[in-house]
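Notebook p. 47: complex prediction with magnesium ion.
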Amino acid sequence: MSKIERAEVFVASPGRSFVTLRLTTSDGVTGLGDATLNGRELAVASYLREHVVPLLIGRDPARIEDIWQYLYRGAYWRRGPVTMTAIAAVDTALWDIKGKVAGLPVYQLLGGRSRDGVLVYSHASGADVPELLDDVARFRELGYQAIRAQAAVPGVGGTYGVRKGVVYEPAATALPEEQPWSTESYLDFAPAYLEAVRERFGFDFHLLHDVHHRLTPIEAARFGKRVEDCRLFWMEDPTPAENQEAFRLIRQHTTTPVAVGENLSSIWDVQQLITEQLIDYVRTTVVHAGGITHLRRIFDLAALYQVRTGSHGATDLSPVTMAAAVHVDLAVPNFGIQEYMPHVAETMEVFSSGVRFENGMLHPSEEPGLGVGYDEKAAQRFPYEPRYLPVARRLDGSVHDW
Ligand code: GCO
Ligand code: MG
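Predicted complex, structure tokens below:
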């Protein structure tokens, strides 16, 4: 029997911070897992190093489900982003190993292709409306069939989703940047720029928008109703989702589709949203929702209720997660869309990936396993630099949801 012989945790910042797990079996097969939790990287690295690695050595890498149950139920302390990200890293690495041992790309192990490619959306943004429109034009030229639009709200510094450098990277400062927020200004401004995008470019592509947890349910209902003529593919995270019931009120007022789940980590966190059809797209990901094994469980539940998938894919999800996501997206029957933000050059000096972008779609590598690599030597050139996500404050100085 093959055994897990080595488990190494790498923490590095090639362009941004990533935590990566590499498992090696007694047969010399390696598997990679992403364990990155933006702004809380070392909590997962330590959970893995101190509490998971010692339990893995000597186990049979073929028993993916059993190891998942062992780490989840065996911890006694359940759910939560740190635990679920750590379990995800192990699970993803084990699927990588299983694919390599079988000589098959992971999507084949998940039932094979359900589609030819994976529809993706990327992020257009602007410091003002003309800049946003130019950016949408650029993404159209690059062949994207789905584009998310965000513009800086006048008078509200550092609005969510507006790119400063080559890619949108919100975790940019050594301590959290504090950004002002005005719901009133946002509600006045955002519908107008979404309309401007449709006026200039028409309707033959999907338009998305991320509210990023900033509204109350009734404000979100008003926003969704107001933008119905823009025919959004979705409005994302209109209100925080700790209280799943809150989405019923939004639903009662608007036909704008709703997407939720990028910061949720288990099937229990989306159970009511799915079974009561309070959302249209579930955005849980491989890395933050317990790996391929658990994500597949969430997606299968969603399929029963005609909820489609729309996994998170910002740059804080490493190329290992992106590859794993493409394998899952290709296989599941209820795939909707995949978020995709290409990583910066430094990141790709450390990770290699066979994922290909063509005509607005992603395609997986046909190599056995996930088709990703990690260059540990290259990673040493990029030591870990802590970076935090911003914190939002209302104009009266009180803390708001960022
Ligand atoms: C998205 C997300 C991200 C998150 C980031 C947090 O829709 O891509 O909202 O931009 O804010 O991933 O780590
Ligand atoms: Mg989002």
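Notes: The mean pLDDT is 97. The chain has two domains: 4-105, 109-366.
Next step: compare against the earlier run before touching the bench.
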